[in-house]
Amino acid sequence: MAYTRPPYKTFRQELNADDWNTYVRDNFEAGAPAIFTTKGDIAVASDIETAIRLPIGNDNYYLRVNTAETAGVGWSSFEKAKMTRASNQSIANATTTTILWNSETFDNGGLANPANGRMTAPSPGIFELRSKLVILRGAQTLAAGEQMWLTLYKNGGALIHLDWYTAEVTRDSWLYMTLEGQFIDRALNAGDYYTVTLTHYIGGAVDVAHTSSFFEMERV
Amino acid sequence: MGYIRPPSMAQGEMLTAQQWNQYIVNNMAEGIPGKFAAKGDLLMGGGADLSTRLASPQDYYHNGKGLRITNGVPAWDIADVAVVSRTTLYELQAQEDFAPILFNNIHLQSDNFITMSSNDVRFTVLRTGHYISSFYVSLLTGVGSGAPAGAIYRIYCGVFNSAGTLLARYLLAEYVEKVAHGAHYTQALRGHVAFALTAGWRLQLQITNNHQLRIQNGYWSTRRVK
């Protein structure tokens, strides 16, 4: 039943059955509390002079703005996800390689996809992306001037470098290096996705350790 | 217009046009859904028998944010956030005067958080709260005659009040050249700092460098966490 704004009446103008049915009965039916059906319901606008029922959400959900919802708001948890590696990943020399995060630590809001290592925005908004790579030397020495860097990608294109390391002096006994960083970005559309890559010029393959390496995404 | 509580009517009394206009037309306009004007609206009390429309801004900076009490009334929170980046390199002569790092690109900002001019970049917080500031800067050292061992580069975050008076300066990162070299080594510095800030206070990312260098690229972000 839709709400229809009642017209003003003039002096001695009669109220008829249509007035009653349309402007009183139907309007009450289109508003609160008539649209409520369950404890915890909230009346929210879906458009001008249009109310819809927003059912209560799960425990520990928050009422939040959600442009993707018909009501413009909705109950949900705060989106936050973390992925790691289930095993070490080998990264070849001089080859920008996407880290395939294949183990989900937690995922509130459906951001993480351990099948392809991507973090995906469930709806437009501002997100912080954080990543840390623990890089094992394997058999490689690290000569002065050799470099490695961690880059954040968005929708398949490089967005920004998160960290960069250059060896100042030759190191032949290093065990591991860490690269880490974070960046805040605006996802313009639901489905915008992020990945991280490692690029290095150390001369041979190195491993990204499954221990302590991670990729996180969180709405801010 | 406003809601007026309808009186009781006596048996046999007829509804007048004036009563219709006040108790039906005007009162409905003060309720749900008569008061709703846009998607996402809620209705809240503005006092006794007084309703107020609570709009939910449907934009990037509010999407996903919760309802919180601000200045005594419910309001949708906003992601107070700003990110600037450096997209082209620039050179800095040796100086220890806490020169501002000159970012040249606004990546994103809410509520005109950022003040950017050719010789200064500042974040001015609009709301009192707790903030985290993070940066990453890629330095090209060994510019000119080469970098001596011991050359020091330090990055700070300066906190100023609304009058521009420096309140505090936090050291976020430091890099010391281990060996003398003439090659251009790329060194990344990054760091974070959390602080409680008052509305109107300003932040500036600063650098001291006792040897010439180039700033290649990087970014600086600040966001409210509480």
Keywords:
heterodimer; A: mainly beta; 1 helix; 17 strands; 45% strand; B: mainly beta; 6% helix; rod-shaped
Could you report the average pLDDT of chain A, rounded to the nearest whole number? Answer: 93
Spans of chain A of at least 5 consecutive residues whose pLDDT stays below 50 are none
Number of helices of chain B: 1
Tell me the overall shape of chain B. rod-shaped
- From the N-terminal CA to the C-terminal CA of chain A, the straight-line distance is 38 Å
Alpha-beta content class of chain B: mainly beta
Q: Strand portion of chain B, in percent?
A: over 45%
Helix proportion range of chain B = under 10%
The number of helical segments of chain A is 1
Class per helix and strand makeup of chain A: mainly beta
Largest interface, per-chain counts? A-B, 67 and 58 residues
Name the poorly predicted regions of chain B: none
Strand content of chain A: over 45%
Radius of gyration of chain A over alpha carbons? 27 Å
The Rg value of chain B, from CA coordinates, equals: 28 Å
Can you put this structure into words, describing what you see?
The complex is a heterodimer of chains A (220) and B (226). Chain A is mainly β. Chain A contains 1 helix and 17 strands. In chain A, strands 5, 6, 8, 11, 14, 16 and 17 form a 7-stranded antiparallel beta sheet that branches. In chain A, strands 7, 9, 10, 12, 13 and 15 form a 6-stranded antiparallel beta sheet that branches. A two-stranded antiparallel ribbon of chain A has the order 1-2. Chain A is rod-shaped. The model of chain B has no long low-confidence stretch (mean pLDDT 92). Chain B contains 1 helix and 16 strands. Chain B has one helix spanning 17-29; strands at 42-47, 50-54, 67-70, 73-76, 81-86, 90-92, 95-100, 105-109, 114-117, 120-124, 129-141, 152-160, 166-176, 185-197, 202-209, 213-224. In chain B, strands 5, 6, 8, 11, 14 and 16 form a 6-stranded antiparallel beta sheet that branches. With 226 residues, chain B is mainly β. The chains are: A mainly beta (220), B mainly beta (226). Chains A and B meet through helix 1, strand 1, strand 3, strand 11 and strand 13 of A and helix 1, strand 5, strand 11, strand 14 and strand 16 of B.
